[in-house]
Design brief:
The protein is an alpha/beta fold and 393 residues long. Helices cover 31% and strands 27% of the residues. Helix 1 packs across helix 8 and helix 9 packs parallel to helix 10.
Amino acid sequence: MQYFFELGNNPALSIAEIFSILGARENYQIINNKILIIESETELEAEKLIQQMGGVIKIGKIILEKVEKINLENLSEYLEKQTEAKSKIFFGFSYYGNKKINLKPLGMEVKKYFKQKGLTSRWVNSKENILSSVVVEQNNLLKKGFELAVIEDKENFLIGETTAVQPFKELSFRDYGRPARDDRSGMLPPKLAQIMINLALAPFENKEDAVLFDPFCGSGTLITEACLSGIKNIIGTDISSKAVLDAKKNINWAIKSKEKNNARIFECDIKKITDKIQEKSIDAIATEPYLGPQRGRIDIKKVIKDLESLYSTAFARFNKILKPKRRIVIIFPVFNLGRNKKVFINPNFAQFKTVSPLPEKLLGKYKNILSKRGAIIYGRQGQRVWREILVLE
């Protein structure tokens, strides 16, 4: 069975996350940096998968391959199965490709087809070629009908049936609805937190049993996502007593049941973390430390010197508490000074080796969004501080 994954804004990060969960794949295809096609001998639980992923917009099954033309005849067998519905059918199409094709005639033909079968239908479309997860969800396409993905594949097309879309409402609510926010310090987006957790726990078969540690937990985004993913052993620390209180408040708000809150959170300076956490007891570390000032004028040299000292201290402590051959997923700040000038920090982490989150044959394809260390760079135009996401072992 072939499956398609619509990738997020940073396709390299999306692909890294998919492979961290499903394992490295030999046979895969990337189309227009938008779609990843993989083969799976077992059926994927798309709805469960997409709840765990932060970098995937849609998941679906490929139902037709090597289609020369997108017309009613090619879809007749699939549409016949949809006529089993007794109520109004909602349907839509998304086109992933560079060719100029007009799906309006097909939409009208499908409506006519259902009418001839005695069924009412509604064709959901938009100005864009791709229906967003918001449009798909709000129009109940997956519950009351279907969305078909038309994917350009060289001279032909693939047709996929969307089976799950990103839970944008839940993610947005956990991001902007949380009771304790600290916009001045900057906050990790829940989507990125999910990706980091998946990358950190990639080597584990039973991820729920791993001991996950966030030593710079801030207001608790990463801890919250770890709790929601079912991880049983989670530790979070921060030097700020306010951050610890905020984290506990946000986690209890998001989890809604203290029985599901598996996190142990307490105040602690990174320099003293080895006094609180047993040597070689941590299975994975996923964290975003302090990234430096987010506003105002700064002395970039002093900021970098201070950050390099902080990070170097942290790595020295991580080396003592992390089990052998275990992973750290950590964010380094990248200062965007404009005119394509970006400044990186270089702390001492000689105790660890960099692990590429991407297959080797993709490193060339995505070299424009990889740092010299081979880490994925994450940011958007106009953002002052970008993120360099390192996977270390």
